[in-house]
Amino acid sequence: MRAMLRRYWSICAFVLLLTADRATKYWAVLSLEASPEIDEKSFSFALYLNRGITFSLLKEYSSLSLAIAATGVIVLGVVCARSARLCAMPGMAWLWAGALGNLVDRVVYGYVIDWIFVFKGYVNLADIWLCIGCFQVLVRLLR
After folding, report:
1. Which domain range does residue 48 map to?
2. What whole-number distance in Å separates Cα of residue 16 and Cα of residue 129?
3. Residue of 44, 46, 65 whose CA lies nearest to 56
4. Which runs of consecutive H residues, i.e. helices, occur in the chain?
5. What are the catalytic residues?
6. C-alpha torsion 139→140→141→142, nearest 10
7. Of 39, 92, 111, 138, which one's alpha carbon is 20 to 30 angstroms from that of 79?
8. Count of the separate structural domains present in the chain
9. Mean pLDDT, to the nearest integer, of 107-128?
């Protein structure tokens, strides 16, 4: 019963996180001005269409970026399929929401919609979800 309840809350968290990512990207496209160049502000909001991976690495190779993102989702799926313990960790909902949020962008648009400028680059909620999920899973594994 406890495991079933934990799984239910993980699914709810995943749906909520993915919805928040998709909704904020939709809002960003409708509301924010495009910012092709990264300025030196430490925090701001602007629309940035990222054809590369993190911090616009490999932006000249959008097909490779898509392949890397798809591989990440496949690896995450294999890990979950092989380990029920790992799949049940709360951080996995965050990882799934982040990975799928950005993969949907790459498949549908050919780029990821970033809109939060933090220090030296643009990110979106899916990127933040990935960081939180990695941190949660790492802490659980080290316990």
Report:
1. 2-142
2. 11
3. 65
4. 2-31, 62-82, 84-87, 90-109, 125-142
5. 114, 127
6. 50
7. 111
8. 1
9. 91
